[in-house]
């Protein structure tokens, strides 16, 4: 299965291909997803030595999932700063747990 086959499979699995969202609904879905997925990664990141490989990985591993969700809900590049802010906030909150 190639890269796009996996994306289509995940999209079908989530049933997002047949669902239409307004721009504000899609933005809320993306921001909540970016925040929630980054909380556990922030929790684990805070327990690693700063600037170690694990610390770096816990920061960057959720990014492809946020990008995938942004494409699945059909939002363009203008929402990248908002999703980045939600991701940073999720990392911060997870680190404080």
UniProtKB/TrEMBL annotation:
It comes from the Bacteria. The keyword Membrane applies. Keywords: Membrane, Transmembrane, Transmembrane helix. The chain crosses the membrane at residues 26-43, 55-73. This is Uncharacterized protein.
């Amino acid at each position: 299965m190639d890269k796009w086959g996996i994306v289509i499979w995940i999209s079908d699995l989530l049933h997002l291909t047949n669902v239409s969202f307004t721009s504000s609904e899609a933005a809320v879905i993306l921001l909540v997803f970016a925040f929630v997925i980054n909380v556990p990664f922030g929790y684990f990141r805070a327990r690693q030595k700063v600037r170690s490989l694990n610390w770096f990985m816990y920061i960057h591993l959720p990014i492809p999932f946020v990008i995938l969700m942004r494409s699945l809900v059909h939002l363009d590049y203008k929402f990248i700063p908002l999703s980045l802010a939600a991701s940073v906030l999720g990392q911060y909150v997870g680190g404080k747990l």
